[in-house]
Amino acid sequence: MAVRKKIPMRKCVGCAEMKPKKDLMRILRTESGEFVVDAAGKKNGRGAYICRSVECFRRAVSSKGLERSFKQEIPQEVYDRLEKEMGEIEAEG
Question: What pTM, to 2 d.p., does this model score?
Fold first, then answer.
């Protein structure tokens, strides 16, 4: 009898769809309070998952999905930096 490997699923804070964890990108709040894109998904800290598209990121910003996930207000300059980083990663992939 074959054993099925469980695929971890996560919800995108932009489109609210459940997708496999490896298909999503992680936005991370470090212990020092800094927000970074964790493309590998291995760093320590509080994370929120989002589709690998700038469109989904913009949807998360307008619906305040990231702010709800982190339970705090996020400054606009952080959003600008994260959008730039996501655009670079999206262009690579």
Answer: 0.82
Domain count, the chain: 1
Mind spelling out the 3-state secondary structure of 20-88? EHHHEEEEEECCCCCEEEECCCCCCCEEEEEECCHHHHHHHHHCCHHHHHHCCCCCHHHHHHHHHHHHH
User: In this structure, what CATH number is given to the domain that contains residue 83?
Assistant: 3.30.1230.10
One digit per residue, pLDDT tens: the chain, 93 residues? 678 889 999 999 999 999 999 889 898 998 888 888 887 778 888 899 998 888 888 899 999 999 999 999 988 988 888 888 877 766 666
